[in-house]
Amino acid sequence: MKITSSAISLNVANPEASAKFVTEHFGFTEDMSADGFVSLSHPGVGYNLVYLRTGLSSFKPDRIAADAGQGLLVVWVVDAIDDEYARLQSEGVEIVTPIETEPWGERYFQMIDSNGIVYQLVQWMSAEAMS
């Protein structure tokens, strides 16, 4: 099998709102859109991020066509987590988990968009940086 591209598709009540969130705060660009559908890309991310309006008849199987947010994290690894934290706070992004560092070196924080999608930025810290 040869995979030529990939995407993550999330059902949300308002695709345009989530698309605006990631374009304004994370540098994604819109590749295409239609009624109830927005597909975005980013040069540093290896997949398209797609938002579909909940209830679209084209979503199959329909028995799982609920909102995406419950238990889902969209995670991106970054180089300067503290700078990103300060930037996003200054932009008024709703931080739901303040920045913290786990004992195994994962330094992260989480934000949420108006559709309830949680985004997490992570930086993996070296042992030297943690001491």
TrEMBL record:
Residues 2-124 form the VOC domain. Coiled coil: none annotated. SUPFAM superfamilies: Glyoxalase/Bleomycin resistance protein/Dihydroxybiphenyl dioxygenase (SSF54593). PROSITE patterns: VOC. Pfam families: Glyoxalase (PF00903). This is Glyoxalase.
